[in-house]
């Protein structure tokens, strides 16, 4: 059970001994194949150039320690992979690490690297971050380059960083996004206003989120965010159609894991009418989030509605799709969203507190997370 598919030490031209980072295997690193942890792509040729985010990291002095494992083809929430192995959940080895960026979250949580890059199409950074007890950010859609990232085309997917500390996550964002304002992300956020979104989640997790906001001394108000359920279902329709378009041809290879084969075949049934309806929901939900953010600076809610299930339960067929009920909607809308780990009374695992901001205001999201981090450390 490894967080890495391959390990190496790649440095920039100045050969600096900078902070270490792992790169999800759906992101190109020159000289290494991008297999998306799939047997069907195991013989893929080596990438001829770095993805833009990889090159930016190297230029900024980061040291790449390897390719991070992942849920096959980035199309799953459990992180279980019978081809490349299933990464360990640092919080509880008996539980799923979350998907699809399972190896990235595991590597950070285990302390193997300072940070990692993942991709988030339906919660695939924030979900594993919450499962593994680390921080994970999905930037505003389109803000971070996807050149050299699979799949090539997506209206949902975002490259985002994992870290154990906000200062490191902000450093990683500063490296991969030339427009990111680190000073703004580190400013005093005590005056920023928080909207606590009513969410269907376990009571202990909702209480942990409320308590963290209270302990941080942030001005908060309760907010109802309509169309979350509709946005969840619409997000599923879009990811199904786009993943089938990108990887459906691999079904005929006979080399996909059983779960991927079944899910891709099901995705093929997404109709044009389904997509048209999903786009209507995208417009409605995006407008609803924008309206909610007129009254406050960020929205706060649980990342996951419950703690991650066990590997045994997942392998026995327990459904995990509801894991993404509170994260997938913000892929559909494109707003920046971050998961931050918080302690839950009476539980051995930390849960995820999700912070959602206005489009382009990723720095506000990070500033609030850093403020909460400092408050909870006292």
UniProtKB/TrEMBL annotation:
It comes from the Bacteria. InterPro entries: Amidase, Amidase_CS, Amidase_dom, AS_sf. GO terms for molecular function: catalytic activity. This is Glu-tRNA amidotransferase. Belongs to the amidase family. The lineage of its organism: Bacteria, Pseudomonadati, Pseudomonadota, Betaproteobacteria, Burkholderiales. Residues 21-366 form the Amidase domain.
